[in-house]
């Protein structure tokens, strides 16, 4: 994607800062490790390597670091990361850099290799990159507070999309871009935070010239996209940058992926939130944790199976048809918690508080969610994931898909044993609309760390008042 001159300059400064931090950390790691060896803080086999061996590796360090930082997403603009997320991305980038650097020095037959220096280098670089980015944020925040901006913008539109854009521009201090006003026909009132409607679309050329505007954002609803041609015609004799903000939330609540097909730009509105590597990582976590979980809790599962069998002599497990990824049906396993043939008279119905179909031990299993443990086998088979929207029965889905908008979007990922809706209390006989809202939030904002967070929260939410 083509970037503005300011964005290009910002990335150049950022890359320069990263290279300096990395090189300084590389050299500092040599001196710190040499000091540790000389003071016998850390055992060293053989003599201390000469500084020249470290120095001649600097070009490789620079090339490998820039490649690793780029591949790890450190130079993605337009998104603010909280501190924990920034630390995660930096650690991922520096870890990849160290692996590539070790491989490079090995094939280049460079004799400089030290595990102590490598650990020190990794720590210094990671801390330096995080602190450097935080300092950049403080610097740009102060610049905005002092009224220093590098560029000015006008926003065409006064609706929801325009207001969100106004907030985003003010929140991303690194852009040093000040929204000077909204542009729209007919309405001239205060909109957004300290931003007013300053004119109509016909006034654009005059406002751009008078206020030295650098960028015009077109943030109109879908019904008014035809006005974009008029805006471009009015601005054809100016040098101002024009950016179109598509009204994607009006089309889909999911994350959008930008692509290209033979030179034609495409917006994928209904794609999986996982890339190939993300999907591989999530599947690996599922298999590893499900396998470990089955090993650890096998005594507990054996005890539960024995009690279920002795309670009434019926089957231990209960398989129920559910719908998962891409609408595919599968048999979800549970420890049986209800009487045999419990739905013969009632038909398919949700469990409710005080449900008379439950066995005495089954009530305990459902209230503690222990009846869900056999679904670890579903995870190993690939029918489910550890974390995802809870799967529902096709009988109920046929009713929900018509009465609840966007219900089927939850099937764009694998169903899960636990999910964001469940750990926030929206499970069992609770609001379906709220549950869908939380499920779609999970799909849109998925990350492997989000999955770990939900798994930790699940332990706390196992005793849930809505589990019948």
TrEMBL record:
> What stretches pass through the bilayer?
12-38, 50-69, 90-108, 114-136, 287-308
Give one Pfam family, short name only: CoA_binding_3
Bacterial sugar transferase domain segment(s): 282-462
List, alphabetically, the GO terms of the cellular component aspect.
Answer: membrane
Example GO molecular function: undecaprenyl-phosphate glucose phosphotransferase activity
Q: Where in the cell is it found?
A: Membrane
Q: Please give, as recorded in its UniProt entry, the membrane topology of this protein.
A: Multi-pass membrane protein
Query: Which InterPro entries does this one have?
Result: Bact_transf, EPS_sugar_tfrase, NAD(P)-bd_dom_sf, Undecaprenyl-P_gluc_Ptfrase
Keyword Membrane recorded:
yes
Keyword terms, alphabetized: Membrane, Transferase, Transmembrane, Transmembrane helix
Q: Which Gene3D superfamilies match?
A: NAD(P)-binding Rossmann-like Domain (3.40.50.720)
> What EC identifiers does the entry list?
2.7.8.31
User: EC class of this enzyme?
Assistant: transferase
Judging by the UniProt lineage, the source's domain of life is Bacteria
Per the record, the similarity remark reads: Belongs to the bacterial sugar transferase family.
This chain belongs to which protein, by name? UDP-glucose:undecaprenyl-phosphate glucose-1-phosphate transferase
Lineage at the top is: Bacteria, Pseudomonadati, Planctomycetota, Planctomycetia, Kolteriales
């Amino acid at each position: 994607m083509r970037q503005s001159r300011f964005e290009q300059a910002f990335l150049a400064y950022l890359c320069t800062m990263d290279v300096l931090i990395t090189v300084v950390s590389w050299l500092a790691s040599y001196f710190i490790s040499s000091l540790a060896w000389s003071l016998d803080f850390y055992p060293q086999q053989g003599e201390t390597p000469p500084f020249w061996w470290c120095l001649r590796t600097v070009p490789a360090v620079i090339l490998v670091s820039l490649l690793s930082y780029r591949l790890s997403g450190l130079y993605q603009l337009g998104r603010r990361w909280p501190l924990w997320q920034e630390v995660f991305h930096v650690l991922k980038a520096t870890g990849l850099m160290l692996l590539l650097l070790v491989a490079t020095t090995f094939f280049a037959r460079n004799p400089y290799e030290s595990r102590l220096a490598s650990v020190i280098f990794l720590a210094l670089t990671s801390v330096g990159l995080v602190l450097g980015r935080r300092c950049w944020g403080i610097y740009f925040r102060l610049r905005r507070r002092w009224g220093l901006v590098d560029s000015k913008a006008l926003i065409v539109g006064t609706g929801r999309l325009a207001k969100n854009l106004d907030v985003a521009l003010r929140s991303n201090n690194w852009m040093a871009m000040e929204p000077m006003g909204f542009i729209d026909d007919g309405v001239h009132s205060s909109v957004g935070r300290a931003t007013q409607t300053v004119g109509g679309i016909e006034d654009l050329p005059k406002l751009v010239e008078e206020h030295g505007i650098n960028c015009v954002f077109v943030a109109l609803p879908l019904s008014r996209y035809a006005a974009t041609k008029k805006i471009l015609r009015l601005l054809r004799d100016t040098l101002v940058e024009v950016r179109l903000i598509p009204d994607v939330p009006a089309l889909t609540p999911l994350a959008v992926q930008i692509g290209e097909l033979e030179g034609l730009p495409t917006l994928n509105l209904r794609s999986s939130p996982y890339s190939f590597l993300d999907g591989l990582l999530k599947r690996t976590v599922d298999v590893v944790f499900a396998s470990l979980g089955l090993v650890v809790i096998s005594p507990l599962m054996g005890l539960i199976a024995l009690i279920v069998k002795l309670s009434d002599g019926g089957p231990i497990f209960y398989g129920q048809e559910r719908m998962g990824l891409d609408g595919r049906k599968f048999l979800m396993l549970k420890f049986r918690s209800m009487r045999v043939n419990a739905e013969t008279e009632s038909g398919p119905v949700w469990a409710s508080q005080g449900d008379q179909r439950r066995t005495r031990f089954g009530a305990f299993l459902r209230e503690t969610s222990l009846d869900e443990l056999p679904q670890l086998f579903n995870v190993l088979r690939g029918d489910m994931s550890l974390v995802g929207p809870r799967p529902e029965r096709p009988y109920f889905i046929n009713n929900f898909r018509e009465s609840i908008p966007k219900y089927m979007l939850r099937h764009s990922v694998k169903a899960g044993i636990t999910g964001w809706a469940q750990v926030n209390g929206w499970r069992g006989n609770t609001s379906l609309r709220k549950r869908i809202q939380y499920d779609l939030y999970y799909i849109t904002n998925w990350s492997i760390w989000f999955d770990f967070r939900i798994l930790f929260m699940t332990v706390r939410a196992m005793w849930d008042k809505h589990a019948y």
